[in-house]
Design brief:
seven-stranded mixed beta sheet, FAD/NAD(P)-binding domain, 24 strands, 468 residues, five-stranded parallel beta sheet, binds flavin-adenine dinucleotide, Glutaredoxin, alpha/beta, 24% strand
């Protein structure tokens, strides 16, 4: 049997694995991490495949939002990425092991079940599917630019954001969700436009009547959103195309809410487990068991209705408890012995201090701020990765540890600097950064390559290797 080895962050190194796992959890949103916390505390040493790009990002949908005001325990609210960082830290503290990759294939036709991730074959007695659901998007040309800066996929979550107060807002969609969200947003906006492609609503009659009778809502019939516009900080309008005449017109709205459905991330198990007409996993009513013994579902992947962080977390707990009982009942669990009953406290995360004249280190792998950037740009003979981040950017939380791992693997042959674009706006403007995360690779004062968004570690590694 090959021993698994993990970094202090719980990430498994690239070793051959021929162990049969007790429990593999697929997905790292609130459902996946809650399941992991319960399973790890039950000494099952769960393996969690975080996902990377397929169906979301590590940490799940809450990584793409700013303030979460309705998760119990945080009376002043909490940033979505911070909440997920905490869930992750709690899961790791109790012994969860991570594979930071997408599950590429899941074979439930034989036992133990087989999952392929990062090119490895992983065998497991039980599986919890917590792969979430992705809100459908319109894929407007400027969608990424205004995501969480005017465009949102969740009116109930984001409607109360100060920027939407007393402003004109728009909801896209003609079904029950769109009508409900339009009504909900009238609490905050000065007026709400419901953008409908056809000439009637698909919503139930009662819901449609309520919308049509509401003087604060105008239905924009036969209309399709084709683009959004605004400043660097916030969206200020959308362009509509008339679906019958083809004519374009502008609508000055500060918020655009998508209510055009969700797609559950069940592609890998379709045909192996029962799913409903929309592709959501079917479980026993009120329970986490899927149609196959030993396979459990948690969170949005099996929930077309509630789709909230707390409901996902609750069902993650149920799934882990059910998996543990099933494994014990069949004598399949190989539990781990803890050296200490109580693992060490996680403590506050150490943040990188902004470098200045006093603490700048020319050989440090990772530093922060304009001073370090200027010094390294001019003096360093090594490739320099510059990552532009902002405090509420979830994907930045995902990307930074990946970049640090690349630099650690390179053993000091390249260096990194983080620029917070809120703190160092001038630098961001000078560098032409239009969104976060953006990564620029410099070598001998020349810009070699630029990436926007979260990318695989191998892309950065290859680009740096080519310079060495
Ligand atoms: C913009 C926005 C704002 C929101 N705000 C709030 C809020 O304020 N409060 C609230 O309660 N809810 C909010 N929600 C809803 C909430 O985010 C979801 O209900 C919740 O995240 C669902 O959790 P989950 O664990 O089921 O799935 P998700 O959070 O969707 O996580 C799914 C995970 O599965 C992973 N995955 C997918 N495919 C694979 C694969 N092939 N292999 C491995 N992993 C995979 C993804 O990477 C991701 O980590 C918001 C949603 C959005 C979109």
């Amino acid at each position: 049997m090959t021993e698994l080895s993990a970094t202090p962050e719980g990430v498994l190194s690239n070793v051959e694995v021929d162990t049969v796992e007790n429990l593999v959890i697929v997905g790292s949103g609130p459902a996946g991490y809650t399941a992991a916390i319960y399973a790890a505390r039950a000494n099952l040493s769960p393996l969690l495949i975080t996902g990377f790009q397929d169906g979301g990002i590590p940490g799940g949908q809450l990584m793409t939002t700013t303030h979460v005001e309705n998760f119990p325990g945080f009376p002043d609210g909490i940033l979505g990425p911070e909440l997920m960082d905490r869930c992750k830290a709690q899961a790791l503290r109790w012994g969860t092991r991570l594979v930071e990759a997408d599950a590429e294939a899941i074979d439930l036709s034989q036992r133990p079940f087989r999952i392929t991730a990062e090119g490895r074959n992983i065998e497991s007695q039980a599986v919890i599917l917590a792969t979430g659901a992705s809100a459908n998007r319109l894929h407007l040309p400027s969608e990424e630019r205004f995501w969480s800066r005017g465009i949102s996929a969740c009116a109930i979550c984001d409607g109360a954001t100060p920027q939407f107060r007393n402003e004109e807002l728009a909801v896209v969609g003609g079904g029950d969700s769109a009508c409900e969200e339009a009504g909900y947003l009238t609490k905050y906006g000065s007026h709400v436009h419901l953008i409908v492609r056809g000439d009637k609503l698909r919503a139930s009659a009662a819901m449609a009547d309520r919308v049509l009778a509401n003087p604060s809502i105008t239905v924009q019939w036969n209309s399709q959103v084709v683009e959004a516009s605004g400043s660097d900080t916030w969206m200020s309008g959308i362009t509509l195309r008339d679906t019958s005449s083809g004519a374009s017109r502008d609508l000055p709205v500060r918020g655009l809410f998508y209510a055009i459905g969700h797609t559950p991330n069940t592609r890998l198990v379709c045909g192996q487990l029962e799913v409903d007409a929309k592709g959501y996993l079917i479980t026993r009513p009120g329970r986490p068991e899927t149609s196959l013994e030993g396979v459990y579902a948690a969170g949005d992947v099996a929930d077309a209705e509630w789709r909230q962080g707390i409901t996902a977390a609750g069902s993650g707990c149920q799934a882990a408890l059910a998996a543990e009982r099933w494994l014990s009942h069949h004598g399949l669990a190989v539990t781990v012995q803890r050296e200490a009953v109580e693992p060490g406290a996680v403590g506050e995360q150490r943040r990188t201090a902004v470098s200045d004249e006093a603490n700048f280190d020319p050989d440090a792998l990772w530093q922060k701020g304009g001073y370090a950037l200027r010094k390294l740009y001019h003096d360093s003979k090594r490739p320099l990765l510059v990552v532009y981040t902002s405090p509420s950017c979830g994907p930045c939380h995902v990307l930074k540890p990946q970049l640090k791992r690349v630099l650690e693997e390179l053993g000091g042959r390249a260096q990194g600097v983080e620029i917070d674009i809120e703190a160092d706006q001038d630098i961001a403007v000078q560098a032409g950064v239009s969104g976060t995360p953006t990564v620029q690779l410099f070598f001998r004062k020349e810009l070699q390559q630029q990436w926007k968004g979260v990318k695989q570690r191998s892309e950065f590694r290859q680009a740096i290797d080519a310079l060495l």
